[in-house]
Design goal:
The protein is of the alpha/beta class. The protein has ten helices and eight strands. It has a single domain, classed as Alanine racemase (TIM Barrel), CATH 3.20.20. An eight-stranded parallel sheet has the order 7-6-5-4-3-2-1-8. The relative contact order is 0.15. The structure holds pyridoxal-5'-phosphate.
């Protein structure tokens, strides 16, 4: 794997309209530094402990993205430094992020994760839950949270049509919300969708952030869960 070449390749392929999040989970700091030296600054991790460790040992101009399921009791460890939490998947989690952010007087940027895949196992709100949440007073009260858009993961399948349809439905929801009247602290700026296997389809369907891991860093050689 030539990490620098991979970073150059994806950044030029994506252009200015789409942010590359280099998903560095399971890879050690010295590997991440190779991407950093190629100019990459946005990195994604899915485990709190690993994220905190890397934050502490790597340059402080890295923008750290939390992309994995986040347990409420671990929120406090990442709130001081995290750049964007992509995986807000419950009202309880949202309230905990708000609470911890209020304690240190920080506004934390978040995306609402929407369940678009067929798999039962993927976390996230349903489309109607997102719409309801954005109308509820909870959002207006959570003034240490800035909601910047939506995130979704498509079904892990070879069926491109299926994947495309799932991304399209998320894009449609995002557009609908964008053109509706949104509460303060909410804007539909980012649409985080697409990984190594499906980022091209995601871009065709309007993604503004792709989260690419194995295609940059190679296969992960120890289990994620
Ligand atoms: C691991 C992960 C990715 C990246 O997956 P690759 O297939 O390695 O590109 C993207 N998004 C989330 C939420 C992940 O956990």
């Amino acid at each position: 794997m030539n990490i620098k070449n991979n970073i150059d390749h994806y950044r030029s392929e994506l252009g200015d309209g789409c942010t590359l999040i280099a998903v560095s989970k399971t890879h050690p700091p010295e590997i991440i530094l190779q991407a950093y030296e190629a100019g990459q600054r946005d990195f994604g991790e899915n485990k709190v402990q690993e994220l905190v460790g890397k934050y502490e040992s790597l340059p402080n101009d890295i923008r750290w993205h939390m992309i994995g399921h986040l347990q409420s009791n671990k929120v406090k460890y990442i709130v001081p430094f995290v750049h964007l939490i992509h995986s807000v998947d419950s009202e309880k989690l949202l309230l905990e992020i708000n609470k911890q952010a209020a304690k240190i007087n920080r506004v934390v940027s978040c995306l609402l994760q929407v369940h678009i895949a067929r798999e039962e196992t993927k976390f996230g709100f349903s489309e109607s839950e997102v719409t309801a949440l954005l109308k509820s007073p909870v959002i207006t009260q959570a003034n240490h949270i800035q909601i910047n858009g939506l995130m979704g993961m498509a079904t892990n399948t070879e069926d491109h049509n299926q994947v495309k349809n799932e991304f399209r439905s998320l894009h449609t929801l995002w557009e609908q919300l964008k053109s509706s009247s949104l509460p303060e602290h909410v804007r539909m700026r980012e649409l985080s969708m697409g990984m190594s296997s499906d980022y091209r389809l995601a871009i065709e369907e309007g993604s503004t952030m792709v989260r690419i891991g194995s295609a940059i860093f190679g296969e992960r050689n120890y289990p994620e869960h």
